[in-house]
Design a protein that fits this description.
two-stranded parallel sheet, 268 residues, 4 helices, single chain, 8% helix, mainly beta, elongated
Length: 268
């Protein structure tokens, strides 16, 4: 069996909702049936066969070729299998992901992993704003699973995040961990302004100390043996985070404007 492949014929003029094209929704369907599936296309619809050359028959591994940032909701509500994006992805990649793996070889637009519950998302390029955050009208951000970003992330990483793990190998923008309720975010690069703004709980693990606002309190330098367990959990992942071994960190707590139960650990 070969991977079920959707090769984009040409760059779409409008955004395409790719949420119907997941392993669980396509299981048992023939290529002819898949080609007839209607996809939201701007304010209208188009069939999958009109947009893509479709080949292969293994629905458990789906590949999007020639992918662009017009392809939104790739892997939305996915419960099993694997999706590989050869190119860029649009907004809401892995939205409400329940299980499985998504591997994006390029960059992504905003709202990746919103309300994600389980699984693994790897982004080899950069990602936009609101990574692992809640969507418009929702107060629930990422609820579980793991996201690895090889490049940089935009603003509001982990906004209202409730559980799970986000690892960013590059830089993160403004308001990283804003309104974060629980979970862990790691950043190896630089951060923008207002880091941990209104952070409720959770852990922000940093390689470089950002400029912190007045309601983030410095608790001094500590040796924290529990970091051994945290770093051991990274060992199964393909990321430089798996090479971390520091136990000595400078610890900050906050946001003191909201009970101050969150923590920022800067590795020394």
């Amino acid at each position: 069996m070969s991977a079920l492949t959707f090769k984009l014929k040409q760059t779409p003029q409008f955004s395409v909702n790719c949420s119907p094209l997941t392993p669980n929704t396509l299981a048992g369907k023939s290529a002819q049936d898949i080609a007839k599936i209607n996809l939201e296309y701007g304010n209208s619809s188009v069939t999958a066969g009109e947009l893509f050359h479709i080949s292969g028959n293994d629905c458990e591994h789906i590949i999007f070729q020639n992918a662009t940032d017009k392809l939104d909701y790739i892997g939305a509500n996915m419960t099993s299998g694997q999706i590989t994006v050869e190119g860029d992805a649009g907004a809401y990649l892995g939205y409400h992901l329940k299980n499985g793996k998504i591997d994006c070889k390029g960059n992504t637009a905003a709202f990746v992993a919103c309300s994600m519950r389980s699984g693994l998302i790897t982004i080899h390029g950069n990602t936009g704003d609101f990574l692992g955050a809640g969507t418009d009208g929702s107060r629930k951000g990422m609820l579980g699973g793991t996201v690895i970003v090889k490049g940089n992330a935009g603003d509001r990483v982990g906004d209202q995040m409730r559980r799970g793990l986000i690892l960013i190998e590059g830089n993160a923008g403004d308001y990283c961990a804003s309104r974060m309720i629980a979970g862990t975010i790691g950043v190896l690069g630089n951060l923008g302004t207002y880091t941990a703004f209104n952070m409720h709980r959770g852990t922000l693990l940093l390689k470089k100390q950002p400029h912190l606002h007045a309601t983030i309190q410095d608790c001094g330098t500590h040796t924290l043996p529990f970091l051994n367990l945290l770093f051991k959990s990274f060992s199964r992942l393909d990321t430089p985070f798996s090479q971390l071994n520091a136990q000595r960190v400078r610890r900050f707590v906050g946001d003191a404007a909201y009970k101050g139960n969150g923590e920022i650990l800067v590795m020394t």
